Amino acid sequence: MSNPFDTALSTLRAASEVAGLEPNVVKFLSQPKRIFQFSIPLKLDNGDLEIFTAYRVHYNDALGQTKNGTRFVPDLDLDTVKALGFWMTIKHAVAGIPAGGGKGGIKVDPKKLSEGELERLTRAYIRKLPMKGAWVDIPGADIGTSAKTQAWMLDEYEEIMGFHSPAAINDKPAEVNGTVGSMEATGTGAFFVTMEAVKDLSIPKGSTVVFQGFGNVGRIAARLLYKEGYKVIAVSDINGGIVKLDGFNVNELESYVDKEGTVAGFPGSRPISNQELLELNCDILMPAAVQSVITEENANNIKAKLILECANGPITPNGEKILEDRGIKVVPDVVTNCGSAIVCSFERTQGLTDTYWDIETVNSKLKERIVKAYRETVETADLKKTSMRNAAWVNALTKLSNSMKARGWV
Ligand code: NAD
């Protein structure tokens, strides 16, 4: 199934059956509350005019104001934005965050723009966004956006409003009243979840870990697991993978990647393809790159005991059925990678109270919140005799359903 919104709806249908949701709740959740689509005309540096298509979806705001990512990619379409908004709604509910799910972006290749063009486009996006603000909808970063674009967005918003409002935009740098720890939040959160899962499965320190993807998320989680005494035996990026069966010194590997821009060629390692890497003999597998890498084609060859979905949707539904039959434990994306959603919520809280926390406070609150989400998921999975993915969705949908009923929406 290639349409991401169809995938989101099929997970909704499967989980609503397990949760025993009323048909009206499912009907309500099968479409976004609001969709904005608008054009942004931009005069390029060479004088040409280009018109860009922009989107923002408020999927569901029963639990609080909508918030999250803004994606600048050339192939953005409305169904992708709807699916991402839905997943954010679920992620916030799983993590116990008082927020709804929002997502948006512009169909653009930011690499083809000059810095000045990118700034003008980003500011125009905020000017033209019909509903925004700390109590309405808070755009954050996603693919193609960064702390820099978020600082421009905040500045533009504050210019429009005529007052400071640091809680109106997320993922901005600490220098403009952002939060510390936001860049590391997803990898750090994935590490906290891994520590709980290894306790449950009695996987001891010294066990082997494999990472697909060594970017923001994979790298931070690998660093923390290495520090904790786990043996990282293989890592990869878009250029391919490397393996070292007695384990990498992850600090040295990071310095190498900073210099070379890739893991390929790290001294003392053997090259391996991304496909082979997934099938390596290991205890823990962390897919932290892209979606749909474990499918019915390779699920039978996976040897890990535990898989933590650091990326969004790395396991297809058919692949997951096979893993489930083989007794391989999967911690789903909405639990494993909700660290950044949690810290974004902390960023808003800090902005609203104009009080800024240190990294120890951010990380200890992150740990408390994400471990609670993991524990609640395990409890529901045991109770309902279902997968962790269904359990996480059941918990989220139940919270959403209760709030929508109390509000009189269904
Ligand atoms: P990133 O761009 O920093 O790193 C991605 C890594 O994956 C890089 O090492 C890249 O070379 C590698 N990669 C890309 N395509 C690949 C391919 N086809 N095969 C193998 N490796 C490939 O991204 P990130 O922020 O680390 O995010 C990783 C994943 O986690 C993405 O799926 C993202 O959507 C998801 N995610 C990220 C966050 C976050 O806060 N960064 C939050 C939730 C989910």
UniProtKB/TrEMBL annotation:
Xref: SUPFAM superfamilies: Aminoacid dehydrogenase-like, N-terminal domain, NAD(P)-binding Rossmann-fold domains
Pfam families documented for this protein: ELFV_dehydrog, ELFV_dehydrog_N
Family: Belongs to the Glu/Leu/Phe/Val dehydrogenases family.
One BP term from GO: L-glutamate catabolic process
Residues the record marks as site: Important for catalysis: D142
Protein keywords: NAD, Nucleotide-binding, Oxidoreductase
Record protein name field: Glutamate dehydrogenase
Residues reported in the UniProt entry to bind substrate: K67, K91
Record organism: Alkaliphilus peptidifermentans DSM 18978
Residues the record lists as binding NAD(+): T186, N216
One Gene Ontology term of the molecular function aspect: glutamate dehydrogenase (NAD+) activity
Domain Glutamate/phenylalanine/leucine/valine/L-tryptophan dehydrogenase C-terminal residues, every copy: 179-408
Entry annotation: catalytic residues: K103
